Amino acid sequence: MKKQNKPASEKFVKEELAKTKNEIMGKVDTIVTKTREDIMDIIVKKHNEVMNKFDKFISMYKKVDEDQTVSTYQIATHTDKLEEHEGRIKKLETAVPQ
Length: 98
What we know:
Low-confidence stretches: none
Strand content: under 5%
Shape: rod-shaped
Number of strands: 0
Number of helices: 1
Radius of gyration: 41 Å
Order of helices and strands: H
Helix content: over 70%
Distance between the termini: 127 Å
Mean pLDDT: 91
C-alpha cells in the first residue's frame, strides 16, 4: 500500500477494516479448527485407553464368573453325595441292632 499524505476517506477505512477483519477471522478459524482436531485426537486416544482397560476388566470378570459357576456346580454335586451318604448311613444304623 502506497503512503499518501492526504487523510483517509471513511470508505477506505471501512474497506481496510473489513479486509483486516476477514484476515483475522480466517486465522482464528484456522486456529479453532486445529485446536478442535487436537482435542478430538486426545479424546479418541483417551477413549481407546479406557476401553482397552475396560476390556481387560470384563475378561477378568468373566473368568471369575466362570470359576464361580464351576464352584457352584461342585458344591451342588458334593451336597447331593453327602445327602446320599447320610441316607445310607441311617439305613445301616437302623439295620444293625444295638
